[in-house]
Amino acid sequence: MGNLLYVIAVILIIAWAIGFIGYNIGGIIHILLVIAIIAVILRVIQGRKLFD
Fold first, then answer.
1. For position 22, what pLDDT does the model report?
2. Displacement of CA 41 from its chain's centroid (Å)
3. Which of these, 24, 41, 4, 52, lies nearest to 16 by C-alpha position?
4. Inter-residue contact 36 to 18 (CB < 8 Å)
5. Using N-to-C axis directions, what is the helix angle for 2-21 and 28-45, rounded to 10°?
6. Chain-centre distance for alpha carbon 22
7. Of 9, 12, 19, 51, which residue has the fewest beta carbons closer than 10 angstroms?
């Protein structure tokens, strides 16, 4: 389950970067970034390594 959260976080960060650089679709992409950051923070708080 932890790996899944990390993969989702990475995908959301990449999607945010693409949206920030190339496409302007409004606030949705920034919400995705916030969700990705929260997933990474939860993983760190739980004491797991970011890279397994």
1. 63
2. 10
3. 24
4. no
5. 150
6. 18
7. 51
Tokens of 45: 């708080």
pLDDT at 13: 82
DSSP string computed for 8-47: HHHHHHHHHHHHHHT---TTHHHHHHHHHHHHHHHHHHTT
Question: How many other C-beta atoms lie within 10 A of the C-beta of residue 23?
Answer: 10
pLDDT one-digit tens code per residue, 10-42: 888 888 777 776 665 566 777 778 888 888 888
Closest-CA residue to 8 (of 31, 30, 40, 51): 40
d(CA 29, CA 12): 8
Q: Which residue has the tokens 């970067």?
A: 17
